[in-house]
């Protein structure tokens, strides 16, 4: 265990003692609702891209910035704000984040221009970085050890399936009302979470003998911005474009500088990188990185399949994702019981194996004619596997750091998810796009040159240009659909290969069990818990 834990006093609970079962339920509901507001805002605006572009005359680049700036600000500030929350107090940090987040949602919903919307989304991303790590830190620092795994399972289920649920509700609001009502859902959730947090969530904070690691916080933010930016913009601008290469270079250099600085700071570091030598932190982080990457990549290829291949609406396409979300959220809650019986590593191994099987089933059976039923089994199996693997991975990360550092531990968990999401979208999206182009290139004989070039850009483009090709219209649409499925299969098999490597890693090097770092006996930094 890290030398962070030496020469410090034991935890000192102040006022009211430990929460009872009723209070713990209220705490869990409060932080889950707060988390749901943040997660729903990550994916919700995806369904309103066209509406924003038309209303403001905004370019596709501007619309993508409106969506991506939120994730960029969130990911960049998770570690610094998680650490600040540990020091200043988790309850006031959570309340402040909720107030700013709610205000940003109101401004976004009333935004008269794309510029105002971008500003509101930046504020929402910053406040989300205050909320997201604190929600998990409240659980790990408040719940007793025997209840902690179940609570983390609920949190993980919301974090994993909440995005799909939020997108479904957002698509519903767009269909039945106006796209601006997308922001009503997060604002309502924030109001409820704020009231429950004020009443039920206890405060806890770290009293550290060391000054805040400002340089480490700055280096971590620069590294995350550089690496996330290149993953978001690389597919659009080109991986060899100067801005992509510069962003990659800055991100890698800052990451290396961050590691070197943290090793130099040792006990006073923002994140003790030496802990990655331990199975819990390393295994949990790698598993979440890959699993969330695959999940996000799957979502990227599923929506074009539903909309362009099957011809479904946005709402119906989002509803088609719900079985995976339901399986994921259900098994996330069951995973702690399974881990208690067979161990964390075995549970993670089963989860990763099922996720790999789900990908393989989709790759084997997906077809244009088979429609939704050709992928349903794979979606269900993958949802079960992801739920089983995410909860013990999250617990492995949070249990690797002491209770006083749970804001940092939770932030690391969240940063890993964001990196995995960005990486999965970029890589699997690129594989599908390249596979589609290779498959359709040899099937465009007889199609007018201009229409053929448009069709090569993507399946949505092919469907849009098809009516202009006269008698070739139906043939072009079918060719594009089949080419997309061919590209899909290549991406799925690549995902199977990556998950197969992860399966071997987890089976051999996964966490053996819960680390005692966050138990009361191992607590080494004075923590104040007040009602």
UniProtKB/TrEMBL annotation:
Keywords: Cell membrane, Membrane, Transmembrane, Transmembrane helix, Transport
Primary residence: membrane
InterPro entries, alphabetized: EmrB-like (IPR004638), MFS (IPR011701), MFS_dom (IPR020846), MFS_trans_sf (IPR036259)
Gene Ontology cellular component terms for the protein in this record: plasma membrane
Topology versus the membrane: Multi-pass membrane protein
Regions crossing the membrane: 26-43, 63-81, 93-112, 118-139, 151-173, 179-198, 210-232, 238-261, 281-306, 312-335, 347-366, 372-391, 491-508
Entry keyword Transmembrane helix: yes
Domain Major facilitator superfamily (MFS) profile: 27-512
Domain of life: Bacteria
GO-annotated molecular function: transmembrane transporter activity
The keyword Metal-binding belongs to this UniProt entry's keyword annotation: no
Localization of this protein: Cell membrane
Entry-linked NCBIfam families: efflux_EmrB
Protein name (record): MFS transporter
Upper classification of the organism: Bacteria, Bacillati, Actinomycetota, Actinomycetes, Catenulisporales
